[in-house]
Amino acid sequence: MPLDAKVLVVDDDVVTRACLVDYFAAEGYDVRESATAEDAEQQLATEMVDLVLLDIRLPDIDGFEVASRLRNNRRTADIPIIFLTDKRTRASRLKGLELGADDYITKPFSPRELTSRVKAVLRRVDSVGSSSEGIINVDERLVIDFAKREVYVDKKLVKLRPTEYRLLYHLVNNAGWVLTYDQILSRVWGYEYQ
Predict the structure, then answer these.
(1) Which of 52, 92, 104, 154 could form a disulfide with 87 if both were Cys (CB 3.0 to 4.6 A apart)?
(2) What is the largest CA-CA distance in the chain?
């Protein structure tokens, strides 16, 4: 984890937001905050962050829509997103993960567990983002540009969610080797998802 990792907390609840800002600042993070989706999008238009903690219930646009917009914007597509919400249904959890969230945590939550999950996500992203290998021609149809985090099939850019990209990255970098379930789980999702 970068020592001064920037975290954007997007939550309309003043108390929750203040607690998260205080807690993450005390842990050494550079914390930004926003009470609305519009404000969060304006902040991300001018400044990049390392991770977004995102509530689903926001006053202007729901968090699912925010996540979708972040994933569909080339500039913000790779920013890790952790949903932090009181929506506990399986359908909500699945929707969040299908939109490309890196984690989904329900309220109330343990600050220590949340910090551990944030560190795990940042470690996984950092290990994938640190590749200096450049372009790999897997075959005549598949080309991967690790420097730009782009994947091409038949010369067409394919959009991958961050988790899909991490999985591809680890499979390609271990070509010819058998990766066990535990190895893939720890490198792509982390052991907390067993």
Answers:
(1) 92
(2) 54
What one-letter code names the amino acid at 36?
T
* β-bridge partners, 33: 9
Rounded Cα–Cα distance for residues 39 and 72 (Å): 18
The answer to whether residues 117 and 105 touch, using CB atoms and an 8 Å cutoff, is yes
DSSP calls for 83-106: EEES---HHHHHHHHHTT-SEEEE
3-state secondary structure of 180: coil
Phi first, then psi: give them for residue 126, nearest 5 degrees. -65, -40
How large is the angle between the packed helices 111-129 and 162-173, nearest 10 degrees? Answer: 50
CA 100 to chain centre: 7
Question: Number of C-alpha atoms within 13 angstroms, CB side, residue 163?
Answer: 17
Q: What is the pLDDT of residues 158-171, one digit of tens each?
A: 888 777 887 887 78
Phi then psi for residue 43, to 5 deg, are: -65, -45
Distances in Å between the alpha carbon of 35 and those of 32, 48, 62?
A: 11, 18, 12
Would you state the pLDDT for residue 95?
Answer: 92
Helix (H, G, I), strand (E, B) or coil at 128: helix
